[in-house]
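ARCHIVE CARD
CATEGORY: sequence design from structure
SOURCE FIELD: tokenized fold
FIELD CONTENT:
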């Protein structure tokens, strides 16, 4: 399994994670109650006939795991703690609550070499941050596009992703983290070029 990390000069993997996580929260917080019922791409979640609410549920569960991962807990130790519906009657508020806990845990973390016990192996926390940064950042843009929210990733996040992803893009594409490159308009800005290189760009 590929687990190499890139040399991100401007920020730590923790800082980049926090930027990506904040971007995703900005987008999720923009979702209206009516938009929760909109259909979502089947490949974005394991739910059958998924909706935007299912996307929020998946991200809430992902956030809920973060403090446990950073505490060094294994999947067996966590057990069924995060099974079931975490969203309840107010999905966005519920997501925000687990996001707050995740943000606090990440902010307090100070050992990038500690081991994170993940479903696909035991890896350094710094690698966990990098992998989840991809997921959150590109989901932020994709969900915004899906619901018609006029949103751009912060410049600092785009710069950090560029430095992290570009040196290892071929390796990441080979293990299906990213899809084939998509052609973008001539003279496109850096965010658009990043989205094109990683296969996310949709005009």
């Amino acid at each position: 399994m590929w687990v190499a990390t890139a040399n991100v000069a401007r920020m730590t993997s923790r800082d980049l994670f926090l930027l990506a996580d904040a971007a995703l929260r900005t987008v999720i917080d923009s979702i209206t109650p009516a938009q929760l019922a909109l259909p979502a791409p089947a490949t974005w979640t394991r739910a059958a006939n998924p909706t935007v609410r299912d996307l929020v549920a998946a991200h809430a569960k992902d956030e809920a795991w973060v403090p446990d991962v950073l505490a060094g807990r294994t999947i067996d130790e966590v057990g069924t703690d995060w099974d079931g519906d975490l969203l309840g009657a107010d999905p966005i508020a519920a997501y925000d609550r687990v996001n707050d806990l995740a943000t606090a845990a990440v902010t307090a973390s100070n050992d990038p070499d500690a081991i994170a016990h993940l479903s696909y192996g035991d890896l350094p926390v710094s690698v966990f941050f990098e992998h989840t940064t991809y997921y959150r950042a590109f989901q932020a843009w994709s969900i915004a596009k899906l619901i018609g929210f006029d949103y751009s990733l912060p410049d600092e996040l785009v710069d950090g992703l560029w430095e992290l992803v570009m040196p290892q893009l071929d390796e990441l594409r080979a293990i299906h983290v990213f899809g084939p490159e998509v052609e973008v308009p001539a003279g496109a800005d850096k965010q658009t070029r990043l989205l094109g290189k990683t296969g996310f760009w949709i005009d």
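CARD ANNOTATION: The longest strand covers residues 115-118. Residues 1-9 have pLDDT under 50 and may be disordered.
SHELF: design records, drawer C
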